[in-house]
Design goal:
Peroxisomal Thiolase, Chain A, domain 1; eleven-stranded mixed β-sheet
């Protein structure tokens, strides 16, 4: 063991190094037993993985049929007084991004909702409800198998700062039904799933901007560890109803519709949409029940930047700290981590600080260089904001399952402020077979938000 690694191990715990050496299962380990998603150009996990491993750019124009609906909304005055709106509404331009093709279809009969009620519900609530059901089905617990159980629901969600559904519905409905307000409360993103399935674990929403979804998974893990729930559904959802190309944007958007994470020409990200959910269960119980285990969550950690160069800017020391705490929680040897799915905003400042934090953490425990691949999914599908952590998490899970590290696209020349060659990390630019000798593969997933809240998670492949 390298110097300093022993401090990560508590007496009585076992460091997993191979299927042979893994003599017992820690009570802290959590199994991912179900997964479901809808991401740009992917309606299921397998199609998402194929896009990622093949380096597909899923950025596109705003879907034509959705564009027509929003143009009609604007022309009818629904957006006239909005502070961002300017110019002729008939000449508006929508941004390129990672979009879902269809967001209005919903089987209200299956979910026992009246057509009127289904129409009033935020489509993000409908999407999370559908995706939660699919994750449960993927785990083999569909139908009424978990009805009435102590299953928790944890969702990452934030209202859109341009146009949320409550505002849209209030401006388009001929009669303002008070139920619009009730059915569009943020808490019902999680609560609707619990209500529909009669689930009795906690149902909670988290809004820490970009780190919301991975944070939701973190707290689902904590709830399982403490026994508050016996299973947990965790995920996130984000839609952009009106992706209008405003003159005054957030300042982190790409100038040429390409996301170039870690590249020297990186100048920002593009926005995207998506929804994803995983079903979690304590690993010991998942093994006992012979569940289909996709991967294992070994540990995770959350912290806050505190003061930094700006309220929306990351903090390298906080990044280092959250990674070290996640390793400690997972009780692993950091030299075994051979891949990190980064947040990867593709901004010069964000990429540099994220890499500095990771490098500082690794250097506390090893002098090895170029052994850990880094990648980001944002160049493929855009920045899903509060759902972005799920895109990284499921990408990492599929990499573990397929023993393959997928490429980070749009990377040509390294950011001049990041010394990759003298660090433990390298940017992975092609699909690479993931070999670990006799050891189980380990990876990290990193997420941080404009709120200053950071989350890091450690995953391990499951060996039957």
């Amino acid at each position: 063991m390298a110097k300093g690694l022993l401090e990560l191990v508590e007496l009585g715990d076992v460091i997993s190094t191979s299927p042979v050496d893994k003599v017992k299962v820690s009570q802290k380990e959590i199994a991912i037993i179900g997964m479901a998603l809808r991401f740009p150009m992917a309606d299921n996990v397998d199609s998402y993985w194929e896009n990622i491993r093949n380096g597909v750019n899923c950025i596109s124009d705003f879907p034509e049929h959705r564009s027509a609906v929003m143009k009609k909304y604007i022309e009818n005055g629904g957006f006239r007084k909005h502070k961002f709106m300017s110019g002729n509404p008939k000449e508006i331009n929508f941004e390129k991004g990672g979009y879902l093709d269809e967001i209005s279809e919903f089987d209200h009969v299956f979910f026992r909702l009246a057509p009127k009620d289904a129409r009033l519900i935020d489509p993000q609530q409908r999407l999370f409800l559908e995706t939660g059901f699919k994750a449960i089905d993927d785990a083999g617990y569909g139908g009424d198998k978990i009805r009435g159980s102590r299953t928790g629901v944890f969702a990452g969600f934030m209202r859109d700062y341009v146009l949320d559904y409550l505002e849209y519905a209030a401006n388009t409905e001929s009669y303002i039904d008070p139920e619009i307000i009730i059915t569009n409360m943020s808490s019902l993103i999680a609560g609707r799933l619990s209500y529909t399935l009669d689930l009795h674990g906690p149902a909670m929403c988290y809004d820490t901007t970009c780190s919301s979804a991975l944070l939701a998974v973190h707290y689902a893990v904590q709830s399982l560890r403490t026994g508050e729930c016996e299973m947990a559904i965790a995920g996130g959802v984000k839609l952009r109803l009106l992706p209008y190309n405003f003159e005054h944007r957030l300042g982190i958007e790409s100038s040429d519709d390409f996301v170039r994470t870690f590249d020297n020409e990186a100048d920002g990200t593009l926005w995207g949409e998506g929804v994803a959910a995983v079903l979690l269960k304590p690993l010991s119980k998942a093994i006992r029940d012979r569940d289909n285990i996709h991967a294992v969550i070994k540990g995770s950690a959350v912290n806050q930047d505190g003061s930094s160069v700006g309220i929306a800017a990351p903090n390298a020391l906080a990044q280092e700290d959250v990674v070290l705490k996640a390793w400690q929680d997972a009780r692993i040897n950091p030299e075994r981590i051979s891949y990190v799915e980064t947040h990867g905003t593709a901004t010069q400042l964000g990429d540099t600080i994220e890499m500095e934090g990771l490098m500082r953490a690794f250097r506390k425990h090893t002098d090895k260089k170029q052994f850990c691949a880094v990648s980001s999914v944002k160049p493929n599908i855009g920045h899903l904001e509060c759902a972005s952590g799920m895109a990284g998490l499921i990408k990492a899970v599929m990499a573990l399952k397929n023993k393959e590290i997928p490429p980070s696209i749009n990377f040509i020349k390294p950011n001049r402020n990041i010394e990759f060659e003298n660090s433990p990390m390298y940017v992975n630019t092609r699909a690479r077979k993931w070999t670990t000798d006799s050891e189980l593969a380990l990876c990290g997933v990193n997420s941080f938000g404009m709120s200053g809240t950071n989350c890091h998670m450690i995953l391990e492949e499951f060996c039957k």
